[in-house]
Here is the input.
Amino acid sequence: MEHLKRHHGIQMSKRFLEKLTQMVGEFWLQRDDGEAQRCLSDKVIPLAEVACERCCVLADGTMIRADAEWHEIRVGAVCGSEGDRTRKSSLARFGDVERFGLNLWRKACQCGYRGAPLKAFLGDGSHWIWNIADTHFPDAVHILDWYHLAERISQCSNGAIGAIR
Here is the structure.
């Protein structure tokens, strides 16, 4: 708020800014969900806004504290590239996995996923992430992220060493 006042001459209360942010966020969330639902019900694939050679889709989840409670938020990113041109898009959502997966698929299609010869999906070991990968990105190479891969190797090696002792 101080930045708006100092650099742009705009003065508003914290309460007004919170309400404005909530209204704009709800508008875009409803718009995104509506577009995703139309694609599903009309069996229409979203048009690619760009063509790309490579497209990588990433998904993860994290916990955030809001309204004095902990909530899981799902985050996703799509990066499509061709030559030196790159198109990136991201989203973060509270709520159910199916809705998140559908919106991530729509974003990926817009970034050129369907026409890309090289496709990858990167995620951690969560079952909900691999369900999205299997449902919406079955033709992508599925990659377990490095941290979780190292964690699994460590668990296996500790189990093997424990079994030997």
Notes: The mean pLDDT is 86.
